Amino acid sequence: MSVTDPTPFSGSPAAGSDDRLVAEIETLAERMRLVRERVGRVIFGQEAVVEQTLITLLAGGHCLLIGVPGLAKTKLVETLGTVFGLDDKRIQCTPDLMPADILGSEVLEEGQDGRRAFRFIQGPVFAQLLMADEINRASPRTQSALLQAMQERRVSVGGQYHPLPSPFHVLATQNPLEQEGTYPLPEAQLDRFLLQVDVGYPDREAERRMLIATTGADEEPAVQVMNGADLLQAQRLLRRVPVGDSVIEAILSLVRNGRPEESDIDSVRRHVAWGPGPRASQALMLAIRARALLDGRLSPSIDDVLAIAKPVLRHRMALNFAARAEGVTLDSVIDKIAAPLA
């Protein structure tokens, strides 16, 4: 399969037979294997981070990448934009960034006939892949400017709606909240992110390879493998992947046991202030399908639910004061919620 002229696949809902669906899944899995390979030549030692970011894009969602500076979060987003052939733009979030700097604004212009009219000038949000770098350095007012765009795929300026390009994805990077000069994101905006991906340090061997590859005379560039139309087809195909009843029940049990009002787990009732809403169930349903597609499997399993539980739930739950005082972490609570499914 050529990188510059990849084999097309159909994601049309009209594709009817099971054999056709199997063939489409196998073709997409091969394409995504090539995507991972190309990304892996630029990003070293972050296989889980790359996988979860690709899951987000396949599922049609937005991703929040959290980690200290210098872990290639920005580089990952730039690389994905190139590999997927998406029109990408970047916002460097700072405390003085205003909503109009993201959405755009109307300017008053005078025509040759002397008439004056407002013209809308698009902001950087009008892109297929928007990178909001260090999003938690922007003020809450500016952070909220992205909320409508992320949920509705359109923005409202001057009383007029302006549709955003398709596909549209926000990949935001964030410094840990204990860093100085940061603002926590509102819960409503956090819920709009399909996954929260925690980016850690690479292992020693990966860091060694990165050191050699990125400080020499020639650094390997990212290469385009897909385009926006291919990604949209993949997202349509994902929604046709069947999910078994047992997996659906596992999703419901996981999410509902994370809510202190109705959980059977003592740790959740004692330590969780508020739990995940129905959007968490939807996110899990899409994410496990995407994970199965990445592996070339025809349907997801309960193992997929367990593997993707933390990235889906971390930012949709909050611990109470008692939990923080006792040193309880969200990851440990999620482990207890997931234990009955293992």
Condensed summary:
The chain is 44% helix and 15% strand.
Based on the model shown, name its key terms.
342 residues; alpha/beta; Helicase, Ruva Protein, domain 3; disordered N terminus; 44% helix; globular; five-stranded parallel sheet; 11 strands
What would you note in describing this structure?
With 342 residues, this protein is an alpha/beta fold. It has a domain at 242-342: Helicase, Ruva Protein, domain 3 (Orthogonal Bundle). Helices cover 44% and strands 15% of the residues. It contains 14 helices and 11 strands. Strand 3 and strand 4 form a beta hairpin. Helix 2 (47-58) crosses helix 11 and helix 9 (245-256) packs parallel to helix 12 (302-313). The longest helix has 23 residues, at 18-40. The radius of gyration is 21 Å and the shape is globular.
Q: Report the helical percentage.
A: 40-55%
For the record, give the distance between the C-alpha atoms at the N and C termini, rounded to a whole number: 38 Å
CATH superfamily of one domain: Magnesium chelatase subunit I, C-Terminal domain
CATH C-level name of one domain: Mainly Alpha
Helix count equals: 14
Helix/strand/pairing class, anyone?
alpha/beta
Shape annotation:
globular
Q: Indicate the CATH architecture of one domain.
A: Orthogonal Bundle
With strands numbered from the N-terminus, the spatial order across the biggest sheet is 2-5-8-1-9
- The mean pLDDT is 87
Uncertain runs: 1-16
Strand content: 5-15%
The CATH topology of one domain = Helicase, Ruva Protein, domain 3
GO molecular function, one term: ATP binding
InterPro entries: AAA+_ATPase, ATPase_AAA-3, CbbQ/NirQ/NorQ/GpvN, ChlI/MoxR_AAA_lid, P-loop_NTPase
Organism: Oceanibaculum pacificum
Protein name: AAA family ATPase
